[in-house]
Amino acid sequence: MPTGFYAPFSNCFFVTDLVRMHSGLDRRRRGLLREHRVMFLQRARDVLPPRYLRLLRAAAHFCGRVQTAQFEKLVVALALPPRPRVLDVGAGGFLGTNTTAHLLKLPGATIDAIEISSDHALALAERFEGRLNVITGDFLQHPFAQRYDLIVLDLDSPLIPALYNEWIPGKVKQLLTRGGAVIALCFGYAPETQIDSYGLAPETQILARKFLMRKFGATVLTPAILEDAYRQDADYEFVAMRGKLGAVPPETIVWIGLRRRQADT
Q: CA 209 to CA 54: how far, in whole Å?
């Protein structure tokens, strides 16, 4: 195995466990691998033996089906209005696989997808040609011309604290219609000490623990904890939480659905 092989995959789930396996994938680990499957497959192609590549592709296929169900269940729970206007932030990282492809199933939806990487934006536009409007730019700086019924935030896990502390109460609120909804990634739990099976880099594990304790007063998120946390929130009410992969809880990463309150405070 080349020196430094694991370094490019520090954010992939259970990479070291996977490479050590001689046959098959544990069901839970097969699910958790989904987080960065595209990046992993692209980088692994040159360094992994064919048998491991076959396992990785099988895991990606399995996890894609599971994640689709969880994300779409959350969208349904939000009870969006007919012909919703949707903004998909960070859609290009996986060429729309995580979010955009599922949002396009909404009847009559008008979808804008913003991606800061020009290469990712171009690839996204080519994949979904004519089905959505792709914007190349920085979400926080771009001058949007309309408000949205749903904003989806699918960004890298180190950005999660900023999403909840700055983006959602700030620019997201400005861009949502009254009663509009936001779906954002969040840490599902934080380990007491560093563990390989958490699936994220050691520094991200520390970040998760500090963030969850400061924001929600807990190291494991549950719907009850989130409902309590947002009960007195001036801007949002909690709607639903779904594990990103549909695995046995607690999950490393979850989707959280919030609805903007009708009245401004």
A: 35
pTM of the model: 0.76
Is the domain spanning 69-260 CATH 3.40.50.150? The answer is yes
What strands, in cross-sheet order, belong to the sheet with 236-243?
133-136, 110-115, 85-89, 148-153, 176-187, 253-260, 236-243
Question: Tell me: the pLDDT tens digits for 140-152?
Answer: 999 999 999 999 9
What ranges in 78-159 are assigned the alpha helix state H?
Answer: 100-103, 118-127
User: Where in the chain are the domains?
Assistant: 8-65, 69-260
User: What is the 8-class DSSP label of residue 60?
Assistant: H
**Which residues 6+ apart lie within 8 Å of 161 measured at CB?**
207, 211, 215
In angstroms, the CA 234 to CA 224 distance is: 18
Mean pLDDT, range 186-194, rounded to an integer: 92
**Alpha carbons 240 and 150: distance in angstroms, whole number:** 14
Q: Are 96 and 128 in contact (CB under 8 A)?
A: yes
* Distance (Å, whole) CA 238 – CA 249: 19
Q: 254 near 189, Cβ under 8 Å?
A: no
